[in-house]
Write a structure and sequence with these properties.
Elements (H helix, E strand, L loop, with lengths): L9 H5 L7 H24 L3 E9 L7 E8 L6 E8 L5 E9 L5 E7 L8 E9 L1
Antiparallel strand pairs: 1-2, 2-5, 3-4, 3-6
């Protein structure tokens, strides 16, 4: 009986797969990853609601004024923005919930925040659709 290498293969006998078997899994994972990144980028590129701090005036440390803008996708949405004033040690010394009724999609607001101690800065904690 002659020995023929093509008839007997240790890789077939013991179930050893070629080293390129991982390629199909990597390609599948790559396609799923690219699709997720594209979806996440497009979904978060245009949020329903965005807010920007324009400026604040602290001429009266017990009653600072904040000027900020709101841009919403749906003009009929009612928005609540939580505005905070902080002291030198970054403690919250004043907080106001500003209710913005339905109307235009873009608007700018000026709001005074009464405080219990002298404030050095103000900011927008968060805005949410009610």
């Amino acid at each position: 009986m002659s020995y023929n290498e093509s008839q007997f293969d240790y890789n077939d006998r013991y179930g050893i797969k070629p080293k390129s078997a991982w390629v199909k899994y990597a390609v599948t994972l790559l396609v799923a990853g690219v699709a997720w990144v594209a979806w996440a980028g497009l979904h978060h590129a245009r949020p329903e609601l965005s807010q920007d701090l324009i400026s604040f005036e602290n001429s009266d440390p017990r009653n600072p004024t904040i000027r900020y803008s709101i841009n919403r996708e749906d003009g009929n949405a009612v928005i609540i923005c939580t505005l905070t004033a902080r002291d030198f040690d970054k403690n919250v010394v004043g907080q106001v919930d500003d209710l913005i009724e339905a109307g235009v999609k873009y608007l700018e607001r000026n709001v005074a925040i009464p405080t219990r101690a002298d404030a050095v800065n103000v900011g927008i904690a968060r805005c949410r659709i009610r």
